[in-house]
Amino acid sequence: MAQEKEMSRVTEWRIRMADGSSEALTAEAGLACRAWLALKGLIMGLVLKVCNFFRKAWDLGQNEPKKVIHCLKVGMALTAVSLFYYMRPLYEGMGGNAMWAVMTVVVVFENTVGATICKSLNRICGTFMAGSLAIGIHWIVSQSGKEFEPFINGISVFLLASAVTFSRFIPSVKKRFDYGAMIFILTFSLVAVSGYRVDKLLEMANNRVYTIIIGTSLCIMITMFICPIWAGEELYMLITRNMDKLAYSLDGCVGEYFNESGSSSDGDKESDKKLLGYKCVLTSKATEEAMANFARWEPAHGRFNFRHPWKQYLKIGASMRACAYCIDALDGCVNSENEVPELIKKHMSNIALKVSSESSRVIKELAKTMKTMKKSSTIDYLVGEMNNAVLELQEDLKSLPTLFINPQPLQGADCPEKKNTGAVALMDIMPLVTLVSLLIEIATRIEGMVNAVEELAEMGEYKSVADEKNQNQPVSKTNVPDEHKEEV
Q: Mapping DSSP to helix (H, G, I), strand (E, B) and coil, where does residue 18 land?
């Protein structure tokens, strides 16, 4: 019996395979084992997600250290304003209203100096105006009697809240004073409603105004004097970077279309990113408008005066986007499935590449003018070269019919063979004609960029390179003017 039990314990099931071999069948894992494996997989998945999150956060901090600096400044401001709670003399002076200073730092502190100043001044003005108006209405209510107090307060809150909310839809108000209008509604409602139950309303309003002034002043000082990030400088750098991307994309698209060695390698991902740099120009409108709005609030800094023409940067950005739209269409021609005959493509390649090269040279010169903030002495020459290349391209475009029309004479009044040949050939060259017309349009829009940058140079009082050389050149008594040299 013992032997039979032992044999039953070691009995196993096997299955015969198609090749004649056999394999043992293993029993399925138990419920506890499967639950453990599922829990283990879940924990490992969470660990991998957390590790990926911290790795991306580390990469973001390395690529954009200004964001890390901003986070440290926010922590510094909150630590400093928390002293009103930690230190008893300061807390006894402000009381529970010290929390308004902490809240002010949280909602006001922004990434750039201009944004912080804008929100700080909006908060101070909105709080002061709303508090003053609420106290005035409270005095009127107190003179009218207790029975009319709830009705007058309710009507005043309804009318003012509705009027100020409507003002937020006005474009000029929404653009610069939207936050102040919202703070006005909040402060007026709080003071007007709390005044119905609070006796010392004036004291409470004064303490809140003082704590808000303390919080905003602390934010402005920290953001201006500790590693400042200026909105105007960020806008300036954004425009210059987009110009460089635009020039590279234009050269890259045309060069890829006429590339004789075939398409680019799959491993050249960095080149593909630069080729699509024009898309950054198309999506930068909102950022440019926000930065230009905040830059107006900033004091003079670096190379920018207080009245620097920030609005002109928006015009330059608009002209760049008009050019980028054409480059986007140009990229569509490059990726078109219709094949252009090599003979016609080779016929137009040299002059088309010349037009793109001259156009990108103009854009790069404009970017150099923006970076150095000096008037270019060669921009007129480069624009002239670009226009000459465009004229040559138009002449070559006129010569295309001689390449795709059958030169053999007609055998009859109607020759369907020639008509079919001409129609097919015309469809074959349509992508090339579209590309050429886009190049001509891009050159025209680049002239709009040139005009916008020249207007900025005049408004910003840029110095020319020749004037700066004359100022830096030392005056020597031994130097003889050219006119006298010729006379001698």
A: coil
- Could you say which DSSP state residue 464 is in? E
Query: How many whole angstroms separate alpha carbon 368 and alpha carbon 376?
Result: 8
Share of the chain above pLDDT 70, in %: 76
Q: What is the pLDDT of residues 310-353, one digit of tens each?
A: 999 999 999 999 999 999 888 887 777 777 777 777 778 888 89
Choose between 213 and 25: higher pLDDT. 213
Q: Do 94 and 84 meet the contact criterion of CB atoms below 8 Å apart? A: yes
| H helix or E strand, kind and range, residue 212 | helix 201-225
Q: How confident is the model at residue 134 (pLDDT cuts 50, 70, 90)?
A: confident
Mean pLDDT of the chain: 80
Q: Name the pLDDT band for 166 (thresholds 50, 70, 90).
A: very high
Q: Helices 416-459 and 310-334, interaxial angle, to 10°?
A: 160
Tokens 């108006």, located at residue: 133
Q: Which two tokens stand for residue 35?
A: 């639950």
H/E/C letters for each residue in 410-442? Answer: CCCCCCHHHHHHHHHHHHHHHHHHHHHHHHHHH
How far apart, in Å, are the Cα atoms of 111 and each of 54, 236, 284?
A: 22, 16, 18
Three-point CA angle 204, 205, 208, nearest 5°: 85
Q: Which two tokens stand for residue 214?
A: 């303390």
44 close to 34: Cβ distance less than 8 angstroms? no
The 8-class DSSP code of residue 148 comes to: G
* DSSP reduced 3-state for 335: coil
| Residue given tokens 């040949």 in the structure block | 421
For 29, the 3-state DSSP assignment is coil
**What is the torsion angle, in degrees rounded to the nearest 10, for the CA atoms of residue 463, residue 464, residue 467 and residue 468?**
70
Higher pLDDT, 3 or 70: 70
* 393 burial type by CB count under 10 A (0-12 exposed, 13-18 middle, 19+ buried): buried
Cβ–Cβ under 8 Å, residues 245 and 274? yes
